[in-house]
Amino acid sequence: MPGAPSEPAPNVVAIAPGAPGDVPTWVNAAKTGAGASYEAYVDGRYRDGGRTGTVSKVWFSLADGVLTETMYGLIHEAQIKQMRFAVVTSTGLSVEGTDTTSRTEYLHVDAQGRPLSPAYRVITTDKQGRYEIEKRIYTDPDRQALVVRVSIRALGGDVTPYLLLEPHIGNTGVGDSGDAVAGGGTEDAALYAWEGDTHLALRSDRPFTQASVGFVGASDGLTDLADGRLDTVYRSTGETTGNIMLTGALPRVRGGQSLEQDFVIGFGRSRQDARAAAGGSFDTGLDEVLARFNGEGERTGWEDYVASLTELPRLAEQATDGGRLAYASALMLKVQEDRTYAGALIASLSNPWGDTVDATNSSTGYKAVWPRDFYQVAMAMLALGDTETPHAAFQYLPQVQVRADTPGNTGSTGWFLQKTHVDGEIEWVGVQLDQTAMPIMLGWRLWKAGIVSDAEMAAMYSRMIKPAADFLVDGGTAGLLWNDRRITPPWTQQERWEEQEGHSPSTTAAVIAGLTVAADLARASNDTASAERYLAAADDYASKVESRMFTTSGAYGDGRYFMRLSRNDDPNDHGLLGENNGQPAMPEDRIIDGGFLELVRYGVRGALAPSIVDSLPEYDDQAREDRFRVRYDLDGAPGFRRYGNDGYGEQADTGGNYGVGGVMHPGQRGRVWPIFTGERGHYELAALLAMPSASREWMDAQVNGIRQTYVRGMESFANDGLLLPEQVWDGVGDDTAHDYRRGQGTNSATPLAWSHAEYIKLLRSLADRQVWDRYAPVAERYAR
Question: Which residues, 6 or more positions from 38, have their beta carbon under 8 angstroms from its beta carbon?
């Protein structure tokens, strides 16, 4: 049985020295799990008192087998950097994440092994085989609390575990205070951290044998444990603040035996509220909390949301993994929605390359709203049969559209902000015309599906749709923060990768689609003059697609292909693109991407149009030098980079992180994105459907070929937690920093909502035998 440590008791000191501690960072962004409770809307909004009771506003993530960024409040407001265990063994100190391997499993699955809730079992194993730690992690759906149930097994000799909790209250690693109360009959026993009016309290079902709080790198428990024992414990950080760590010592575990201990982290606006949240979970019983989280029996939880997705079973039939990734994707798309601002869909519950990102100042990372990613997610949720979330998303969109009363605006209105917090706080202000077109496209789809009523659309037309469409015709001068550029559509200040100005095939495709369906909405609102104006602009833009972006004298092949971007109206001038991400400027005809496939997806060009067909060989060329090469087949899965010369990724020589210290390096290299495997699968389906009629058997065989190539390809990029990354390792370079294998997700951002959305939409397209994002009015008018 576990026993008390035999080492001498540590010195006890009231106040920890060493403030403010080391410069803080975030953690690995390659998450293998992400979770939050399911909360039902009340009249399309989140508020207490509905079917799911109190709205829990706690999110967590997992990486390297440990609990990582944990949010409370708004979805970007991290309060914890990580919680892990350090284990003292007879042969030295071992730290979870650094000295362990890990695997992630779902706690609640159906008979086919498909996840039914984002509750996890995480197992870490010491690389030297001395211990194993199993953690079961989920939130309390009725409280602001997170549950971590731990089993520690000593596989050889005795081990002594220490819990290490690193708060980052208020979304930074500075300014935190802490107290450590060990127990021994003390009513207040817990580990505490706070900044301002945000508090956390970590409580256990049994007392810690010792508890300490200190400043990272100076007086924290992990630093003290370097010699294998906790020499000094500090009760408080006192009046000073900084980057802190809380430590709780657990009893020694004898060789061959196990220790079971449960922890709940409560959050609140006071110490009392945080303690009460954690205590309430214990009072309910942690088994019952999990049952409520899952929605088992008569309880309302994640099972109910999954059951509401009427199309999910049909989509899962198109998978090659039995539907496991489809179910996980459905969970991930819903998890990554704020629980204060209904319909606020973020890009990812991660901070890319977070372990080398300074956490001194608050930053959202990818925990923010981009209307482009937002559109992809809303459309995927609609594809699943979720009508409530896309509707809430549509109602949310005016909060991120530029209006006359937008704080600081002195320029044009109607365009959508590049990146914002979920509460609409402005973060980035580049004008990206696809992000202004996509809200129109989403609204039209919801209206045609009967989810948005005629009356609601009439109101949203004047409030949101018409100002956006007017901007896509007239453009205007931005007037926010640094941005005072004049925008003349379809020329965009930034294309979908937020780096270059000019004429972009993918952006132009969205603009044409947006204006075409805006004309339909205008007619329904009796605004025939605007309808004619929108169509006239769309006709003009569509007629000049090739003349603006398709080179006939390019450097590759026969010289005929779509480029990533043309900075002016002449695609044959061999003009230079701008420098980005440490990469030198290159002639625009040397840079190819898959943006031209979006012309087919939305219906602006037919799949067999000469300009499209001519571009495919150059996009697919795997003999090109690595700098300019885009396609990399990884273990049979077609993979594609964003574009040639992309520097948004790990160092080619070491595999080291992108942009360390905010400095761009020539050796940085953007890797393969799973999104593009899905985009290519959509194109192959469109091309198949454009062919002359054939037998049903032949068509079935071709569709199955797409499934086996592109669906299976995307599934191969998922990690053991069934999460899809932003980027996977393409094998180019000498990776010594992370030891990635080809096709493995990198430290960019996981789970990327867009990746999961593209996968779901590909399944829907195959199930329907029609491209999900195809807009019939666009195809009828322009596809050729």
Answer: 52, 117, 141, 293, 295, 300, 301, 302, 304, 305, 334
